[in-house]
């Protein structure tokens, strides 16, 4: 029997909770930059990416079709006052891509304390929502709509 590792798919999707709650498996290391995906309400989600050292002008967020892309590109520093003896703060460029479920859209984004918060919401159109069908009186007789004979 073959087994498939779907953990990379699970780590980069938002809004597929029911599907992935059926799957149990270990999460692999997420890579750079680290991030969290939280469910903040019934139809609300938050993606938090640790972007310490990046300014708002060095980050870009793009939502296209069912894909959310977060990019960071550090601008070259000129005129630094000293020599760096150890660099533990990563300043490399990154691109993080998340697959979004149908009807999941970006509500807003904020950068605070080195964390980029992207709030998402799932807005299902009224036509796609389930609706309750009333059950009529079983004794009602069917009505004839038109009573013409074709000539």
Outline the structure in words.
This protein has helices at 7-11, 17-21; strands spanning 13-14, 35-39, 44-50, 59-64, 67-72, 94-100, 104-112, 115-122. It is built from 2 helices and 8 strands. The strands form 2 sheets. Strands 1-6-5-4 form a 4-stranded mixed sheet. Residues 22-29 have low confidence and may be disordered. The longest helix has 5 residues, at 7-11. By secondary structure, it is mostly beta strands. The termini are far apart. 7% of the residues lie in helices and 33% in strands.
Poorly predicted segments: 22-29
Strand order of the largest sheet: 1-6-5-4
Termini distance? 67 Å
Please state the CA-atom Rg, rounded to the nearest Å. 25 Å
* Helix/strand order: HEHEEEEEEE
Average pLDDT: 79
The main sheet comes to: 4 strands, mixed
Helix content: under 10%
Using DSSP, what is the number of strands?
Answer: 8
- Overall shape: it is rod-shaped
Helix segment count? 2
The share of residues in extended strands comes to 25-35%
Class based on secondary structure composition and strand pairing: mainly beta
Quick structural overview:
The chain is mostly beta strands. Helix content is 7%, strand content 33%.
Helices and strands in order, then pairings?
Blueprint: H1 7-11, E1 13-14, H2 17-21, E2 35-39, E3 44-50, E4 59-64, E5 67-72, E6 94-100, E7 104-112, E8 115-122
Parallel strand pairs: 1-6
Antiparallel strand pairs: 2-3, 3-8, 4-5, 5-6, 7-8
């Amino acid at each position: 029997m073959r087994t498939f590792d779907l953990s990379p798919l699970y780590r980069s999707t938002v809004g597929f909770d029911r599907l992935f709650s059926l799957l149990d498996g270990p999460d692999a290391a997420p890579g750079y930059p680290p991030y969290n995906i939280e469910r903040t309400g019934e139809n609300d989600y938050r993606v938090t990416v640790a972007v310490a050292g990046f300014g708002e002008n060095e980050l870009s967020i793009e939502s296209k079709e069912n894909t959310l892309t977060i990019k960071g590109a550090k601008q070259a520093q000129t005129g630094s006052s000293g020599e760096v003896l150890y660099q533990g703060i990563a300043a490399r460029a990154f691109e993080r891509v998340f697959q979004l479920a149908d009807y999941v859209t970006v509500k807003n984004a904020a950068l605070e304390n080195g964390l980029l918060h992207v709030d998402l919401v799932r807005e299902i159109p009224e036509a796609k929502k389930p609706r309750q069908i009333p059950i009529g009186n079983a004794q009602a007789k069917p009505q004839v709509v038109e009573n013409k004979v074709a000539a």
